[in-house]
Fold this sequence. Notes:
3 helices; five-stranded antiparallel sheet; 177 residues; single chain
Amino acid sequence: MELTQSEFLPLRGQSILRAWTPGILPALMEEGMGLREAQDAARARGHCLFERKVRNLVVSAGKELVGDFLIDQETTGLAWHAIGTGSTTPSVSDTQLQTEVKRKQWTTRDRSGNVLTLSVFYTSAECTYNLQEAGAFGGAGASSTPNSGTLFSRYLQAYDNSAGNVDLTFDYTLTIG
């Protein structure tokens, strides 16, 4: 029997990049808000200056990482987000970003049913680059060291913040099935 497309387990991801008035999110988080709550409040006050949604590519190494989780060969999930300046089109054979320049642990990681949402916040001083690419990394080898761990997904998401004029957030959503 041949499987139909609907019988496969698809992994569909997207990233939303938002640019914010510098300092607004940290100020709201100091008031006790979580990152997503701070984003909602800042957006309501007109502090979201830019927003762009893109789809991502779950690379072969990312699919293998999922397989390793299923047979207890891996214990560390998607813990890191990375940004870079490379603009080469993502490929299923990618194992790292083209030119990684900064990496941070996800600020929040949540799951609701079959949808994972991971969010990260970069201050304006942390992301003074002409950004072109981003990716999600996991596995036991992932750390703050560039190109460490297993690349799960890679996507092109351009924003020129080389002057460091804005804070940035990336909200990554992965739907399984």
